[in-house]
Amino acid sequence: MSIATLDGLETALAKLERRGPFSNSARSAFLGLQHGRRSYPPQRDIVREGDPTKSCRFLQSGTLSRSKLLPNGGRQIASLHIAGDLVDLSSALLLFADHTLRTHEASVVIEVDGATILRLAQDYPELGRAFWFDTLVDASIFREWSLNLGRRSARERTAHLLMEMGYRSDEAEIGGRCDFPFPVTQLDLADALGLTPVHVNRSLKWLREQGLIRTSKRRMIIPDWDMLADFCAFRPLYLHPEGPRALPN
Amino acid sequence: MSIATLDGLETALAKLERRGPFSNSARSAFLGLQHGRRSYPPQRDIVREGDPTKSCRFLQSGTLSRSKLLPNGGRQIASLHIAGDLVDLSSALLLFADHTLRTHEASVVIEVDGATILRLAQDYPELGRAFWFDTLVDASIFREWSLNLGRRSARERTAHLLMEMGYRSDEAEIGGRCDFPFPVTQLDLADALGLTPVHVNRSLKWLREQGLIRTSKRRMIIPDWDMLADFCAFRPLYLHPEGPRALPN
DNA sequence: CGAAGTTTTGAGGACCTTCAAAAGTTGTGG
DNA sequence: CCACAACTTTTGAAGGTCCTCAAAACTTCG
Fold first, then answer.
1. Are A31 and A124 in contact (CB under 8 A)?
2. Which chain A residue lies closest to B236 (C-alpha atoms)?
C-alpha cells in the first residue's frame, strides 16, 4: 500500500513500526484511537507558543514547522516535519506549548486526546517505548541543529539541513533522498538556519554553482549524495536508523 | 535533608518527584535499582559520540556537558548539566551515543543498566511517564538553545544561558537563581554559545559593565533578575515548571 | 491580467572571528 | 610556602562572514 493511500493514524503507525513491529493488539489499539482530522491552508498556525495543550497531533500529509518567537520579532524554526511525523507528541505530558506549530504547505493533521495517548502508553508498554523513542530521536535532531547553528558555516548549514530532509523523506517514502519535495520558502529556510533570507539565497546559489544541489520548483535534487555529505559532514547516526533497544524478556 | 547528603539515586529521584510525587512502591523500586558509582576528574570524557550504549547515567554531583564534534575540530555543547540531572536517560532506548558526555568539574556519576530502566518504566508506568517527561523537557531546552544560537545576539545569548543555569540551580537547590556555582571556563562557554572564547570574554565584560552580572570565581551572580530577564527575553515556560499532565483514572 | 508573494542582485556596514600576546589565576611539587 | 608550569582571562588590531537596506526580476495565483 502506498503512503498516499494511508490515513493519518496508519501513516504515523508506519513510521513507528519502521523501528520495530508491534504486537497485533498494540497495533489495533493504536489504529482504534478516537481522533479528529483537520485540514489547514499554507502558512497557518495550528498551535501557538503558550497555548494550553489538549491533543497530540500527527501529520498525515503536508509540511509543518515548530518555531519560537522573540519579542523583537526574531523567529527560529526548531524543526521541520513531513508526513508521518508525530509532530506534537509532547502535548501528551506538557501542559503548555513552548513553541508554535505552523503549516508550510496545505496539510492534514490528526488529533488525539493527550490523556488518551498516556493511557495507551501505559496499557501497551511497547507503544510507550515507541513514543519515548520518537521523543529521543526528536531531541537528538535538536542537538544536531544546535551543532548546525553554532558551528557550521552558512553554506554547510544549508547543505546539512537539505540532506537531513532528503534522508528523512527517503525513510518516510515521500521521495528519494536525492530528489524529494521541499516546499519551504527561502524566508522560512532562513528562520530554520538562523540566517537572513538574502544570505540563504546566496548560500543556495553557491551550492548550485558548485553542482552540489539542483532546485526545481518545490523540489530539491542532490546530484551526488556523498559529495554533499562530505562537504557538510552529514552523518545520519543522529537520526538513529538502528531503531530502539529491544526489551529482553 | 540537604541535597549534599543525598546519594545519586536519591538526588535523581528528588528531581523527578519535584514534578509530582510517586507511589511508595515506585519510589522504593527506583531507590532499589542496582547501580554503579564512578568519580571522574575535570575535563574527562565519560561517553564518546558513536559509542554503543549500555547504561543510563545520573549526575550525583559536579557539572557535565553533552557535546558534538565536527571533523574540522569545531565543537558544540548541546546542554549543560548539574547535580540531579538525568544526564543519559537516552541510553535506555538509543543504541549508540550521538554525542559526547564530558565532565567540567570533578563529578560523581551513577550508572544503571539501560534495559533495567526500560523494565522499570514498564513495571511502574508513573516512572515511565516521569522519564518521558524528563526527555520532553530536555527536548524543549534544546529548542530554546536553537533560538538562542540562531536568533539572539552574543550578549543576549550569553545572558540567557546564565539565567537558565541560575533558574535550574535554584530548582535543584544547588544555589539561588541569582547566585549559583558556575564552574565553566570561557572556552567551554564559547562552545556552548557558538562563539569564540574572545567574543565570550567581551560579552561577559559588557554584561559586567552594565551591572547585569557579577562574576566571582566559579560563581555567577545576577544582581537584578528581572533586568537581565528583560534584556535577554528569558521566559522559563520552556523549562515546564508546571510539571507533567496527571493521568486521570 | 494584475496583485501578491518569492527569488535574486547590489552596495555598504556591523557583528563576530582570527591571530597574537600579555596579564592573571590555579594547582603542584619541592 | 614559594616557584613554576599550566591554564584561564583579558586586550588589541585587522579582517571576513553575514546583515541591513533597497529594488528589480521572476513566479504563482486568483
1. no
2. A98
Least Cα separation, residue B5 to chain A (angstroms): 31
Least Cα distance to B76 among A79, A157, A199, A161 occurs for: A157
CA distance A68 to A9: 27
B194 touches chain A (CB under 8 A): yes
- Partners of A145 on chain B (C-beta within 8 Å) are 142, 146
Residue B249 has pLDDT above 90, yes or no: no
Nearest beta carbon to residue A194 from set B115, B142, B151: B151
Contact B202, A60 (CB under 8 A): no
- Measured CA to CA, the distance from residue B58 to residue B63 in angstroms comes to 11
CA gap A59, A81 in Å, rounded: 8
Which pLDDT value is given to residue A217? 82
Q: How far is CA A190 from the centre of its chain?
A: 17
Alpha-carbon distances, residue A95 vs A89, B145, B205 (angstroms): 12, 20, 38
Residue A206, amino acid: W
pLDDT at A107 > cutoff 80 = yes
CA nearest neighbour of B150 among A148, A116, A222, A58: A148
Are B78 and B138 in contact by the 8 Å Cβ rule? The answer is no
Please report, rounded to a whole number, the percentage of residues in chain B having pLDDT higher than 90.
94
Query: In this model, does residue B248 exceed pLDDT 80?
Result: no
**Element (H or E) spanning B192, and its range?**
helix B186-193
- Decide: A226 and A102 in contact? Cβ < 8 Å: no
- Summarize pLDDT for B137-159 with one digit per residue, the tens: 999 999 999 999 999 999 999 99
Nearest alpha carbon to residue A147 among B101, B50, B68: B68
Rounded Cα–Cα distance for residues A120 and A25 (Å): 11
pTM score above 0.85: yes
Burial A93-125, CB ≥16 within 10 A → b, else e:
bbeebbbbbbbbbebbbbbbbbbebbbbbbebb
Number of A to B CB contacts under 8 A, please give it: 201
Please tell me the distance from the alpha carbon of residue A75 to that of residue B156, in angstroms, as a whole number.
15
Across residues A167-188, what is the average pLDDT? 96
Q: Closest by alpha carbon to B147, among A155, A67, A100?
A: A67
Interchain contact B230–A (C-beta under 8 A)? no
The C-alpha cell that represents B147 in the structure block:
533560538
